Amino acid sequence: MAYSETNPLANEFGFDVGGPLAAAWIALLRVVTGWWFFHSGVTKIIEGGLNFGYGPAYLQGMTGTALGPIPVWMGNNLAWLIKPGVPLFETLIGLALITGAAVRLASVGGAFFMTLFWVGNAGFGHGLVNSDLMGLLLFGTMIVLGAGRYFGIDGVLETTGIVDKYPKLRYLLG
Asked: With pLDDT > 90 as the criterion, what percentage of the chain qualifies?
């Protein structure tokens, strides 16, 4: 049984990887991951506006991590971008995933955030596998599977011919 991106519900009921249940599951993962980030960003905006002071402090405290002086430098020199950027980008990443728009691009941003969170929590009290790594894996899944194509705006955009005219858009959409 083959999967049809144009009509994922046209196939019979089945659990195979290319079937409609897989498409629905990928879409569900995308929306739930999006809600997680959207909620995190909106909560920060409601509580403190676009002035998330913990962001730079968090990076400045990453002195003994595998990333070395890079996050500390970011916390010291990019606070003007990080304070508004964290709540804004979390919100936008979440909205993109919820709607299925530019999912790969948004997921790269989410993976960047989750990498910083994972390495920043370098105490690894529960080992290397923790919730930050699981979030990173979710964003990687969105990138690899082109999750925006399943019941998302990316799937609609790819059928309009825009991608035929600008094929490099495939790297951002999906």
From this structure: 49
